[in-house]
Amino acid sequence: MRFSPRSMCDVWHTGTKRLTASQRATLEASGLSVHHVPLIETRLTDAPLPTRSFDWLVVTSQTAVPALTDVPRDVRVAAVGEKTKQALERVGFTVSLMPETYTGEALFHELAHVVKPDETVVFARGDLANTDHMKQLHHVVDWVVYETVGRDLTEAEVEALERVNALLVLSPSAVRAITPYLDRFDGTWYAIGEVTERAVREVSTLPVRVPECYTMDALIQCVGEDFS
């Protein structure tokens, strides 16, 4: 992996998916050198659908969507945000509920007002997802469909981290993965939402920026505006 000369400003995108061409162009137009440095990997668990009788499917990450092959397409679906909604719709689901604020907490809060006491909800999630919100509903079937694994930085990446001006983190898992190297980082964190922001503030006193809308496009725009 090539990194920038010391005279340039670097931004690290630490998510598992690469930036789109337009997202990368937005950052480069602000004079930033963009590097994709994934901090975590996700793997499907291949766990089977735990029940055939349920009324709602809850999905809080688009990473879970490839695991939903055997889920009936006529089930009512609650999605955490726009990207997850789009991923679900691409494979034939119709999303009935999406919160205005793209967080699991907001999603379950709204579900608690529409799910009937006798209805069953299947929560398709990653192994590190917050399960406290499930307590708001009467009948929730827990289905762990993917697991998250952090990775160690290479020696070159550790050295390059000292020159990073903007660090984009999309999950508490990514924050945990980079925590051992924080003595090398002195830039600004860009967290995609309040949950990730809290994880950052637990380990760092450096500035943290969070977009008003918890989407990748909004996060990229936030970085671009700061460096333009």
UniProtKB/TrEMBL annotation:
Gene3D superfamilies for the chain: 3.40.50.10090
Segments forming domain Tetrapyrrole biosynthesis uroporphyrinogen III synthase: 25-221
Taxonomic superkingdom: Bacteria
Transmembrane segments: none
Catalytic activity: hydroxymethylbilane = uroporphyrinogen III + H2O
UniProt entry tagged with the keyword Lyase: yes
Keyword Nucleotide-binding: no
Pathway linked to the protein: Porphyrin-containing compound metabolism; protoporphyrin-IX biosynthesis; coproporphyrinogen-III from 5-aminolevulinate: step 3/4
Key words of the record: Lyase, Porphyrin biosynthesis
Any one Pfam family match given in the protein's UniProt record, by short name: HEM4
Family matches, as SUPFAM superfamilies: HemD-like
Broadest EC class assigned to this enzyme: lyase
Enzyme Commission (EC) number: 4.2.1.75
Family: Belongs to the uroporphyrinogen-III synthase family.
Physiological role: Catalyzes cyclization of the linear tetrapyrrole, hydroxymethylbilane, to the macrocyclic uroporphyrinogen III.
The protein's name in its UniProt record: Uroporphyrinogen-III synthase
Organism phylogeny: Bacteria, Bacillati, Bacillota, Bacilli, Bacillales
